[in-house]
Design a protein that fits this description.
This protein is an all-alpha fold. The chain is 20% helix and 0% strand. The protein has 2 helices and no strands. It has helices at 33-46, 80-88. The longest helix has 14 residues, at 33-46.
Length: 113
Amino acid sequence: MELIGIPPKKFPYPIFNNCLPHIDVFLANGYTKEEEKMINETRKILKIPDLKITATTVRVPVENCHGESINVELNKEFIIQEVKNILSNSPGVIVQDDTTQNIYPIATHISRT
């Protein structure tokens, strides 16, 4: 299926029906400026300047939300359900993770508040 529309002005490729791993300019180290910003802000917020962290940013054309994928490596053994319970009981965090019921975060389920 070919889509016809106006040529992209802001991005190097059409944003409609695409996911672009290109937010701001690419740096010499292979990251984009947005990825560098995420890395540096996380270190600053957590007050851990040498935190081993990486980031990948992808522009996805949805109108009502942003998404994040975060991987955490813990220093001690853990039970995953306990981690989910801690996150579920944290202010501002909503855990949607029950793949047996097809419950996971998707943009069309985000309400506008």
